[in-house]
Amino acid sequence: MNFINTLPYISNPIDEFSDFQFVSREKEIYPKLVGQTKDEEIDFFSQMIMDQHAKDIIDFGIGGWGLLSTIAKKLAQKKYKTSSIEGNEVEIEFILQAQSLFYKNKQNILIHRANWLDLPEATPTYTHTFDFGFLTGNSLTYIGGGSREYTKKAQQSIVNKFAKLIKKWWYLFIDTRDYDYIKSLMFLPPQEIMKQYAFDYTTVYHGAGKDIIVFPAYISEIVVVLHYYDRQRKMRSKLDLYPIYHHDMIAILSQEFTIEQVYYDFKKTAKEKCILRQYLVRKK
User: Fold this and answer.
1) CB 158 within 8 A of CB 116
2) What is the distance between the alpha carbons of residues 102 and 85, in angstroms, rounded to a whole number?
């Protein structure tokens, strides 16, 4: 059997796509993956904010695809008044994209430029703490490397930084890919991985576009390498992620927060296969 977890797949394409051109994921692949978030997903976020009576809201990683803008729009449609809606981002390209979107939508949303490691320091300076913060799109698992213990410590440090910006007794919402499920695919051949790791064709939450295949081509305890193949343009890219398993995530969050609810692709019912595990936690 040809095992999927072989070292060549860390950097090289699988044989089926060996003639594809390697490109920047952020510049060439990511824009095609980003679509409109489902209405029920935006309802999920906006209702959660309203249910917690949160007035000061922060997105800890705005990226370049407009989730914060869409949530703000939905809250406004529901005539739910907020005191502040702000964002944090380190990448200047994403900041420019977000600023353009906020301007287009006539939204007064302040963006703080800051590396997560430097929080709560930022430019401009944060002037207050928040009722509700969120980090979506599996962003926490960009942090790590070297060993499982190093990854857990690094991710713990980042979550503790987020905690400094959340008021006591208030909320953080954070997600990760379901690495427990991904790990269960470790010894399958590539075609079977692609078959098993298939989700709806919408936005970053579901992992692929109609023309783009996304699947974990290398799986280990320390690193998971996602491969991206654009069949229409014959382009490929990859993304290294540092897995955190469910029991580790509970331990990391529990240092500063109390776990209120775990969701599985926006549902409370646990399931064996999901793309995201999502955690609503409350600051101790």
Assistant:
1) yes
2) 11
Residue 236 burial class via C-beta count within 10 angstroms: exposed 0-12, middle 13-18, buried 19 and up = buried
Contact by Cβ (8 Å): 194, 215: yes
Beta strand 166-177 pairing with 130-135: parallel
Question: Nearest 5°: CA angle at 149, between 144 and 150?
Answer: 35
CB-based burial of residue 184 (10 Å sphere; 0-12 exposed, 13-18 middle, 19+ buried)? middle
Residue with tokens 């790791």: 197
User: What pTM, to 2 d.p., does this model score?
Assistant: 0.91
C-alpha pair distances (Å), 152 with each of 16, 31, 50, 117, 170: 35, 30, 32, 15, 24
How far the first Cα of the chain sits from its last, in Å, is: 49
pLDDT tens, residue by residue, 141-189: 999 988 999 999 999 999 999 999 999 999 999 999 999 999 999 988 8
Distance CA 98, CA 153 (A): 30
Q: Which helix (H) or strand (E) holds 20?
A: none
Nearest to 118 by CA among 78, 87, 158, 83: 158
Q: Report the distance separating Cα 185 and Cα 59, nearest Å.
A: 32
CA distances from 6 to 21, 83, 225 (A): 21, 51, 11
Q: Which domains does the chain have, with CATH numbers?
A: 7-33+180-241 (no CATH), 39-178+245-283 (3.40.50.150)
Residues 61-75: tens digit of each pLDDT: 988 668 899 999 999
Integer CA distances (angstroms), 136 to 18, 67, 206, in order:
32, 9, 12
For residue 93, the surrounding DSSP H or E stretch is: helix 92-104
